[in-house]
Amino acid sequence: MSTSDSENEFLHELQIEVEAELTIVEASRPEEEMRLPATEWRFDPTDVERAEIGLRGLRDAVEALEDDIRPGGHVA
After folding, report:
1. Across the chain, what does the average pLDDT equal?
2. Which of 30, 39, 42, 62 has CB 3.0 to 4.6 Å from 48, enough for a Cys bridge?
3. Cα torsion for 36, 41, 43, 44, to the nearest 10°?
4. Which of 55, 64, 61, 65 is nearest to 8 (CA)?
5. CA angle in degrees (0–180, nearest 5) for 68-23-47
6. Which residues, listed in sequence order, are joined to residue 74 by a DSSP beta bridge?
7. CA-CA distance, 50 to 30, in Å (whole number)?
8. 75 sits in which H/E element
9. Helix, strand or coil, per DSSP, at residue 34
């Protein structure tokens, strides 16, 4: 199976976007939010943790796809 430059570019762009989203999620500091009474939460810390887990999984999947691409445009 061959891969095109556009597919490689897509994976690279996706990885950049996922990393940016992870930075935002990590900056929200859900552990600090959990110390407040639930009525004062700006967001549900559990939702943030779920989002972070999902983004890390997506990042790992993109990295695995990129690792599978061999020089010459072939996928292992």
Report:
1. 85
2. 30
3. 60
4. 65
5. 100
6. 2, 70
7. 11
8. strand 74-75
9. coil
Name the token pair of 15.
Answer: 């990885």
Task: Specify whether the CB–CB gap between 62 and 12 falls below 8 A.
Answer: no
What does the alpha-carbon distance between residue 18 and residue 54 come to, in Å, rounded to a whole number?
10
DSSP letters spanning 44-66: -HHHHHHHHHHHHHHHHHHHHHH
Q: Extract the tokens encoding 6.
A: 């556009």
**Residue 75: pLDDT band with limits 50, 70, 90:** low
How confident is the model over 38-64, as pLDDT tens digits? Answer: 999 888 999 999 999 999 999 999 999
Query: Quick one: how far is CA 40 from the chain centroid?
Result: 28
Amino acid 32 reads: E
